[in-house]
UniProtKB/TrEMBL annotation:
Predominant location: membrane
Membrane topology: Single-pass membrane protein; Single-pass type I membrane protein
Lineage of origin: Eukaryota, Viridiplantae, Streptophyta, Embryophyta, Tracheophyta
UniProt name for this protein: Leucine-rich repeat-containing N-terminal plant-type domain-containing protein
Signal peptide as annotated in the record: none
Single GO BP term: brassinosteroid mediated signaling pathway
Gene3D superfamilies the record matches: Ribonuclease Inhibitor
Family the entry assigns: Belongs to the RLP family.
Protein's cellular compartments: Cell membrane; Endomembrane system; Membrane
Keyword set, alphabetical order: ATP-binding, Brassinosteroid signaling pathway, Cell membrane, Glycoprotein, Leucine-rich repeat, Membrane, Nucleotide-binding, Receptor, Repeat, Transmembrane, Transmembrane helix
A cellular component annotation (GO) from this entry: plasma membrane
Annotated TM spans: 163-184
Length: 192
């Protein structure tokens, strides 16, 4: 992994600067606004315990590395205001703890990952990427590039359709039986 150099040494770091949450030391990497260039090193995926990764406001270029999808504890991923290109990796929707995500102001393209927590992110997380498409941007993808929803989402949609159909059918059937009984009872009443 390429080394980042700093004027500070370990002896200069004050333990009071460490961030604690509920008594647990959080693993965070924040190198925002440092004028870093080049690609985001794929070795970043080795930092499996990472909770927060902020690489915003640098000059990183190239694709979002697939290795970021290995950061299964990641809660916040901030990649805004760089020169990133390519597509947003579909596997990012498997980062179930991800609650904050921002890739605005890059040059990303293609469909925005859907499903899981990605459906909850605000469209401001994606603005400034004129080649991105997806429902949350009101810029729909053409069918050739459209991302198919994960199988679990598709099966949930089909299940929902079946439930709606079943409820509607049941209501119409009950109404029909009730109407039939009313007509039959009226006919019996008229016969006497």
């Amino acid at each position: 992994m390429p080394m980042l150099k700093s004027e500070k040494t370990v002896a200069d770091i004050d333990a009071r600067d460490w961030k604690y949450e509920y008594g647990i030391l959080r693993a965070e990497v924040n190198v925002a606004r440092n004028s870093f260039t080049g690609v985001i090193p794929p070795e970043i995926g080795w930092l499996k315990a990472l909770d927060m990764l902020d690489l915003s406001f640098n000059s990183f270029s190239g694709d979002i590395p697939q290795a970021i999808c290995n950061l299964t504890n990641l809660e916040k991923l901030e990649l805004s205001s760089n020169n990133l290109t390519g597509a947003i990796p579909l596997e990012l929707n498997k980062l179930h703890f991800l609650s904050a995500f921002n890739v605005s102001n890059n040059d990303l393209e293609g469909p925005i990952t859907t499903g899981s927590q990605f459906d909850t992110f605000d469209n401001s997380s994606f603005i400034g990427n004129p080649k991105l498409c997806g429902g949350m941007l009101s810029r729909y993808c053409n069918s050739a590039k459209a991302v198919h929803a994960p199988a679990s989402t598709l099966s949930t949609d089909k299940c929902s359709e079946k439930v709606i159909f079943g409820v509607a059918f049941g209501q119409f059937f009950a109404f029909g039986v009730l109407l039939d009984q009313m007509v039959l009872s009226k006919l019996r009443f008229l016969q006497f």
